[in-house]
Amino acid sequence: MSVPSKKRVLDPKKKVEADSSSDDSSSDEDDYKGGEQIQVEFEGRIPVDSDFHGIKQLLQQLFLKTHLNISDLAELIIKQNYVGSVVKQCDDNPDSDDDDDDSMNVDDDVFGITTVINLTDKRSMGCVSQLRDLLKEHSSKHGDDRTIAKVKQLLDDETKCTGLLINERFVNIPPQVAVPLLMSLRKEMDKAKSRNMPFNFEYLILICKLYKVDSMKKKSKKNKNKPDEPAVIWSNAEEEVFEEVADCKFEFCVKDDSDSGLGGKWHEDDTEMTPWRKVLIFHASKLDEAIEKVTNLIQQ
To answer: Could you tell me which residues belong to the region Disordered (predicted)?
Structure first.
């Protein structure tokens, strides 16, 4: 059931890189050539039914081809509308009534989602059970002994409330929006706890998207047997800060699950961006510290 689109206004006029070029072959040299910056205002809103497909698309780019019911997960996010926000472009109509469902445009794009899923309380749900199995499987394959034991402890002990922090958005949305979204989520979690709702987490888990860039240049004879350390690019820049507060972490390559078109023929001077996922596990008490670090990073 839809709820009124209560707005959680983000910092206005965030710059977004416009990485496109004119499709009109008849355009002259004075036309837009791409690579410019445009001013766009975003706002956080409570998830509603019409956001289903947008949320599902964002979840799909995070989980790719994993065995996970993305549709059910998107529905769960919408149902717990008292916690979490979707990112949308600000309504240009100042006369619109937030309490009028008819004023909502069902075709509004969802540019991001920030929320938390209770992996303990919702463990009987199919999609959450799949998430738990996914975390156990990947930690067993890619984590060290300490990480494997920690994941098993958190997911097998029903007395320990563990949450999955979801912080996903499209690549051209600036990291500045993360600060008000995370702060809003923190306040909503506190409010839910004060009402005895199951959001009193002991640990939080964050799945991050990143890319490793390997140089395709030929090595000299002197260094041909010495592999270069790949550069790491975080899809959401602020998530690198969360690694600083993580108790455990592990990562794995998702190149075979990705449809990002990274294949093809590469020249000697090209670089290849290989998609990875990094899973961060941190104590919930460190969320405030992480948000403060993100705020300082954005201000700099």
So the answer is: 1-34
